[in-house]
Amino acid sequence: MSESESNSESDTPPPAYELLAPAGPAGAFVFASPHSGDHYPADFQAASPLAPLMLRRSEDAFIDRLFATAPTHGAPLLRARWARVFLDVNREPYELDPGMFEEPLPAHANTSSLRVAGGLGTIARLVAEGAEVYDRKLALAEIEERLDRVYRPYHARLGQLLQAARAAHGRAILIDCHSMPSIPAPGDTDGGRRRPDIVLGDRFGTTASADFVEWTRQAFREAGFVVARNNPYAGGFTTHHYGRPREGLHTLQIEINRALYMDEVAIRPNADFAEIARGIDSVVARLVQYEPEGRLAAE
Description:
- It is globular, with a radius of gyration of 19 Å.
- Helix 6 (210-222) links the parallel strand 6 and strand 7.
- With 299 residues, the protein is α/β, with parallel strands linked by helices.
- Helix 6 (210-222) packs antiparallel against helix 8 (273-287).
- It is built from eight helices and ten strands.
- The strands form two sheets. Strands 1-2-4-3-5-8-6-7 form an eight-stranded mixed beta sheet, sandwiched between helices. A two-stranded antiparallel ribbon has the order 9-10.
- It has one domain (13-174, 191-219, 232-283): 3-Layer(aba) Sandwich (Aminopeptidase).
């Protein structure tokens, strides 16, 4: 089953998200892919000096496809439809660079985060290679339009899914699905070395139980992946915002090395894509069996 918020006319902008829901009752797990959206509005592309392929450099391309079997294991998959570079739903709503805008930002804007400093706020200033997205300043009205169109509907639906899971099962577990470049950019903390296959981010033990994080690590290792934890990615806004283990809300960010499954230059699946997708499917099947203290869910 698939849920969206707009009609099917081809010339109509897509909804903020697509929800792939299980055919039967949903379990405690919710999967989300906030950065795999591939809708780049024509007026946005016209306003940028960058070629379309360059604009896609920050996109977590095909991650939604790697996790597409989650609903067959009883877990909904929420995927953003609009491009991350247009509006990043894995940020605070007003995590913004004041230098990008014609007018002063509202007082509640977060202008000093490391993500803003790196050019990757809610509305990005840079793509992954450091190229400027815009050759003009933006109006404040553009912030609100994008938040209303993309950000607020996405988070409203995500919140509903997590509340429903906790109400039904006493807990909710959010898996936030991402990809990472295989080679760090100059200046990144991991020093130019090829990254591991998988990085698990739990904000240094604060957003998910240690038992579940270890369960996940073992699931990936048994599927043949090399796994690291919290380095170089410890989890973003979504992980931090929704992760409240003491209240039965657990969040874990998963980063997958892009070189495993795609051509990072051409942005297309590589010859190993199907094999990696099968490996991810086996991990998802294992994850949804998790019960506190390592007990297997009833099948």
